[in-house]
Amino acid sequence: MVRKYGMIALVLLTVLGWTSIPVAAAQVGIVWNAEYYNNPILTGPATLTRQETALGFDWVSSSPGTGIQADYFSARFSSDPFFAAGNYRFYALADDKIKLYVDYNLVALIDTMTTPAVNKVAYADIALGQGVHHIQVDYIEETGLAKLFVTWADLATNPSGPNFPVAQPSSPQQSSSGSWMAQYYANPALIGTPTLIQSETSPSKNWGAGSPVASIPVDNFSARWTSVQTVPAGTYQVSVMADDGVRVTIDGVLVINEWHNATAQRTSASLFLSAGPHSFIIEFYEAAGVAFLDFSFTPIGASVATATPFPTSAPSLTGAYMTVTNAYRLNVRGTPDPINGVVLTKISRNESYSIVGRNARSSWWQINVNGIIGWVNASYVTAVNTTNVPITSGSAVVPTSTPIVSACSPAPRLSVGKIGRVTPGLPNNIRSDANTGSTLLGQIPAGSLFFVVSGPTCAGGSYWWQVNYNGVLGWTPEGAGSQYYVEPAS
Question: How far apart are the C-alpha atoms of 414 and 437, rounded to whole Å?
Fold first, then answer.
């Protein structure tokens, strides 16, 4: 999709009585993934992660939550709401500092990090095409009072504003139904720092003989899903089937406890829930063999689940097709080249698409993604019925783990012991070694900060740095050619 951005304006206005303005109805139901840091630079593992239903907080002189100090903390909020096409005005009010990004744009739409704007409304306009747009808000509190309010409005239908959300209590109950925060561990006991943290629509998974991501082993791993589900009053049935162990906690009460090796026995429990939000925690571990979890939460007497049904994974395709099995999000490129191939679109784990071609080594598959013809790396998918797939490209340009290069570029800008940031756009891979052929440990999202441990190392035409991102230690490239993937943040 081509998006055309309108003129960006930033105006600071002093506003009195803003806390009494009602919430904008168009933004009801948006879920924000929130990360709170016990430092003012958005770095290191998040001390507190949860979901919020609106960005409307007045912490006064208090802390946002357990483990976060009242002063010198920071937070990052992200969401992917749907917008009708139009010209939008984004509003922000903060004490102390805020940055607001739309669609990973290199320049923040609103930025008061260097311009004093405490307790003043900042706003900026942007033209958005119809569809989902990524919104990221970075917030820093220094000393004294603390507050954060963010909203937006379509100028064609709601030209007056800002309609800030009413200040809400900051607690884990501030979450919307339907979204789960997943934490994956490379051990079977939920110990230490999670290897992968991400938002998911369902805890129901079917990994087969595989694992959630390359940095998680196929055996002896564990996972935890947390969510707040808002339900009407009634009696509900909770049901789980897993290989291997699983337990379910609702509102702090352990309602199902099957924490042992298992082979797909289903366990159910019924309980009464009052109307309103309720906290859910689902924990799972895999011992050996196949791995899956089937979770359902259903009102007794109803025919459909209120939360997250088990997704079907059997494709309806015939002929040659592939299914994403070794990645959660996979790039589809214009050419079979992991460095220079332009990313046309992205596909998700368990999605299946027809194969229309291959390269000579069958290390890349050419697929049809709803009319978009592109290439995916064969290492991240499972392909079937490929005997008669034609060769539609020569050998892929796939760098080896020991490439021969004469120089690296662009020139290094990071420094050991400092903080770096991924530039807006695509995430940066973290690998076990300084080359594209080494094991993929995870990804650093666009705009996220990381700590530089050592480097640089010249390999494959790029400079690589050893970094620490949310406890994941590995190597990430600084850029390629004249393009920087990361930049200094401190």
Answer: 23
d(CA 284, CA 227): 15
Instruction: Name the pTM for this structure.
Output: 0.40
Q: Among candidates 114, 107, 124, 39, which has minimal Cα distance to 76?
A: 39
CATH code: domain 419-488 is 2.30.30.40
Q: Tell me, which fold does domain 180-299 have in CATH?
A: Jelly Rolls (2.60.120)
Q: What is the pLDDT along the chain (490 residues), one digit of tens a residue?
A: 323 333 334 344 333 333 332 233 345 546 677 889 998 888 877 888 877 777 889 898 889 988 899 999 999 988 777 788 999 999 999 998 999 999 877 788 999 988 778 888 999 999 998 876 888 999 999 888 999 999 999 998 877 778 787 766 544 333 344 567 787 888 888 876 667 767 678 899 888 888 888 778 889 999 988 777 778 888 999 999 888 899 998 877 889 998 888 767 788 889 898 887 677 889 899 988 888 998 988 888 644 333 333 333 334 466 888 888 776 567 888 888 887 777 777 787 667 888 999 988 888 999 988 677 889 988 888 888 888 899 987 533 333 333 333 478 898 999 877 888 999 888 899 888 888 888 888 889 888 888 887 788 888 889 999 887 766 778 899 998 888 999 998 6
321-393 and 180-299 share a CATH fold: no
The answer to whether the peptide bond before residue 456 is cis (omega within 30 degrees of 0) is yes
Cis status of the peptide bond prior to 212, with omega within 30 of 0: no
What is 11-154's CATH superfamily?
A: Galactose-binding domain-like (2.60.120.260)
Q: Can you tell me the distance from the alpha carbon of 290 to that of 454, in angstroms, rounded to the nearest whole number?
A: 38
